[in-house]
Every structure is written in C-alpha cells, then in structure tokens.
Amino acid sequence: MTERETLKADVPAESLVHQRPTNVLVVGVGGQGVIMISKVLASLSKELGHQVKQSEVHGMAKRGGAVFSHVRFGPAVFSPTIPEGEADILVALEWAEGLRWLPHLKQDSGTFIADTQQIVPPFACRNRSRGADLGYPRETVPDVMEKIANSFALDAVGIATEMGVAKAANTVLLGTLSAALDFPVEAWKSVISEFVPPKTIEANIRAFDAGRDWALSFDRQTHLKDWTGRTVRSPAEVVDSAAGITSTLEITEEWCKGCDICIKFCPERCLAMDARQIAILVDPDRCTGCRICEWLCPDLAITVHTQTNTDSA
Ligand code: SF4
Ligand code: SF4
Q1: Where exactly are the structural domains of the chain?
Q2: CA distances from 303 to 38, 215, 247, 252, 266 (A)
Q3: Do residues 3 and 218 lie in contact, with contact meaning Cβ atoms separated by under 8 Å?
Q4: How confident is the model at residue 27, as a pLDDT?
Q5: I need a surface site. Which of 106, 178, 185, 293 has the fewest CB within 10 A?
Q6: What is residue 3's predicted lDDT score, i.e. its pLDDT?
Q7: CATH code for the part of the protein at 236-312
Q8: Quick check: CB of 301 below 6 Å from ligand 2?
Q9: Beta bridge partners of 306
C-alpha cells in the first residue's frame, strides 16, 4: 500500500451504491481558518458534481473560541450534520479541539489530520503562577497514533511560518487533506485561489503544496520516532519549562483601535493604554507569554514571540 493510499479515507466502494456521503469534520478555534477550509472543500465538491451540505458553528468564535464545520458530499446528501462516529476525516487546526472531537471519527477507518499547534483557551488559565497546570489535554502524538491507525499530526503553523506565510497554516492543512481525497490537484488550487486575497494566492498555493508534499512523503515509523518523548506544548509551558526562555510582545500600532479587550483580559495585568489609546506592555517581567491577548485581540494587532537561548545564540 502506498503512502497516498494510506492517507485516504476508507470509504468502501459499495457504499456509493447506497449513496453514502463522505463526511469531513473541520474543527479549531476562532481566527484559524476553519471556515475557509470547509468552504473550499464544499465548493470544490460541488464543482466536481457532488451534492454537498455544509454546516458550521462559529457564533462563539471571537478569537480563541471553538469553531467547527461539517462538510458532507456524495451522490446524495440528506442531512447537514455528521453523526457521532461517522466522520471519514477529522481535520483539526488545534490539538485539543481535535482530541475533543475524536468520538465523531469512524473508530476503525477514520482519518485524523491535526495541526500540533496548541492554543490554551483563555479561561483555562485559572492558576496565574508560572508553571501552573493549564488544564490542557496531555495526550501526545504517539498516544493518538496508538489509538487511531490513520492519524497524521503535523506542525502546520511551523511549516507555514518557515515559508514566510504564517497565516497560511490552514492552507497547509488543505494540502494534507487533498492527499486523502480523490480530487484533482489543479481543481484544489483553482478553488483556493478564489477564496484567498488575490495578493496571497501564490503564497497559499505554496503552502498547499507543502502540506500535500508532507502527506505524500509521510512515513509512519519515522513520524512515530520523531514524536516519541516529545509533548505538544503551549508557548506558556515552553516559557516555563526551561531557563532562559523569554516571551516578547509585538503590538502593531496601526492596527490597534484601542478597544481595551487585551488590557481587561490579561491575567497578569501587564498591559495598559497609552495617551494615544494604543495598547502597550507596561510590565514585561510579569508577562508569562500565555498569548491570551494575542488570541482575543479582534484586530490581530498583537503577536507574542517566544525566544530560547539557542534562538538568540
Ligand atoms: S501580555 Fe499577553 S501574553 Fe503577556 S501575560 Fe498578558 S495576556 Fe499573557
Ligand atoms: S491591541 Fe487589540 S485588543 Fe488590545 S486594545 Fe488594541 S485592538 Fe484592542
């Protein structure tokens, strides 16, 4: 069996006779691009002649809230939602959200594609001391691979960032998803081009290719070995786990509209408004790098960077 075949959702041929749709569930948190993935997939399926139903919940998304979308396509689709245990493919843009939705995946044959990016929900940070337990799932990539035969965890954000297109992590995952479905590559690229801003088409196509290449060259044993002993960790945990690791805040003044949200929600009270009504970091020593401000800013004006001694060496 080739790697390409390994990644494919196991949809029995005879099921088409019974007009069983293919079910793809896309999950993540606000601001990650869950809806973009599901719209591209729904639009592509429709263009290729399938009947499609798509449903989504993003009303609570703000930045950092849960978002999910069901996409069902096939010769005939009657319901817009995927029953528990019936998803052929689960695409997770955030690790804990992926774990939370695993019961929706077909237990024996479902394919799990997940970004290892970890976003700690704002209200999981109840203990404000450094090194505190964030109440985040501890399952590692090998733990999940042991439970789900067809599981593929990749650092999509890392891949996109290395390519200089950090915001295209969702397109990296679309590339990975494309290896699990029998749709022509050029058709994927054409639909993606319709859904991204014109200036970013080239970057998004590169991100798509990177995700697809990652999937096509996937080797389970090597992957398992790479992840053994490693944990999927949040930036805050990284900051706390090794001496000499620091976090810094980058606030894009032009994008800050002075809404006050980051200041109100920062657990350490280290942000304030300056005289121009722009958020500033007033107490860097107290900042734990928890990223709550980054995830809640509606204008994407804050980026939290973490830096290790090795990075700065
Ligand atoms: S400034 Fe941002 S990253 Fe730092 S502690 Fe406050 S919310 Fe967390
Ligand atoms: S940085 Fe973002 S959340 Fe903070 S005040 Fe400015 S716009 Fe609001």
Answers
A1: 3-233, 236-312
A2: 26, 29, 10, 8, 14
A3: yes
A4: 93
A5: 185
A6: 42
A7: 3.30.70.20
A8: yes
A9: 247
Structure-derived torsion over alpha carbons of residues 103, 106, 110, 114, reported in degrees to the nearest 10: -10
> How confident is the model at residue 33, as a pLDDT?
86
pLDDT digit string, tens, across residues 130-153: 555 556 667 888 888 888 989 999
Q: Does 301 sit in the ligand 1 pocket, CB within 6 Å?
A: no
- 306 and 238 Cβ atoms separated by less than 8 Å: yes
Substitution candidate for ligand 2 out of 251, 255, 259 with most atoms within 8 A of CB: 259
Helix (H) or strand (E) run with residue 150 in it: strand 150-154
**Cβ–Cβ < 8 Å for 35, 58:** yes
pLDDT, tens digit (0-9, with 9 covering 90-100), for 261-288 = 899 888 888 999 999 999 999 988 888 8
Q: Return the CATH superfamily for domain 3-233.
A: Pyruvate-ferredoxin oxidoreductase, PFOR, domain III (3.40.920.10)
* Residue nearest to ligand 1 atom 1, measured at CA: 287
Q: What local confidence, expressed as pLDDT, does residue 50 receive?
A: 94
* Alpha carbon nearest to ligand 2 atom 4, residue: 262
Instruction: Report which of 61, 56, 70 is spatially closest to residue 31, judged by C-alpha positions.
Output: 61
Name 50's Cβ contacts closer than 8 Å, sequence gap at least 6.
73, 74, 75, 77
Q: List the chain residues with pLDDT less than 50.
A: 1-6, 11-17, 234-244, 309, 311-313
Question: CB of 207 within 8 A of CB of 171?
Answer: yes
Q: What is the pLDDT of residues 43-68, one digit of tens each?
A: 999 999 999 999 877 655 555 577 88
Query: Relative to the alpha carbon of 306, which ligand is closest?
Result: 1
Instruction: Give the pLDDT of residue 285.
Output: 82
Within 8 A by CB and 6+ apart from 313, the residues are: none
Q: Which segments of 66-184 does DSSP mark as H helices, in order?
A: 95-100, 141-147, 156-162, 169-178
| 3-233 and 236-312: identical CATH topology | no
Closest ligand 2 atom, residue 293 Cα: 3
